[in-house]
Amino acid sequence: MNTNLQDEINYVTKGVLIFDLIVISLLFITSFFSKGMFLGLIFGSIIAILNFRLLAIAVKKTVTMPVSRAQIYYSSQYILRMTITGVVLLVSVKAPYLEILGVAIGLLGPKFVILAKKLLIDKLKRKEA
């Protein structure tokens, strides 16, 4: 895999772990911490990281394909990732030991990490330059 792409995947993975620690701390502070919330957060975060890695692999393969094949391949990968997310949410609704709110927060972890990077870190870099 391209080193820039691998670096970005590693950055987001580490960011999700930090995000999880922050969320767990906030859950402790607000007394909303429970075993179900913790397990849901961890489960959602693991699936989110795997989905992010699948996205990176799909993008890397897609850019080397002809346009007609790339569109079909990328669409099928998108449907696969959304199906995985749907199954995870369905499992979290059915499983008594998982809180769906925790799973949803975990699934949104990479989005929050990427937004935080764009809004906070890149803004600080612009001020220094």
What can you tell me about this protein's structure?
It is a single chain. It contains five helices and no strands. The radius of gyration is 17 Å and the shape is flat. 86% of the residues lie in helices and 0% in strands. The chain has one domain (3-128).
Q: What overall geometry do the principal axes of the alpha carbons give?
A: flat
Regions with little confidence, pLDDT below 50 for 5+ residues: none
Backbone CA Rg: 17 Å
Helix count from the secondary structure assignment: 5
Helix share, percent: over 70%
The span between the termini is: 31 Å
* Mean model confidence by pLDDT: 92
Total number of strands: 0
- What fraction strand? under 5%
Write the layout of secondary structure elements.
Blueprint: H1 3-29, H2 35-62, H3 67-94, H4 100-107, H5 109-128
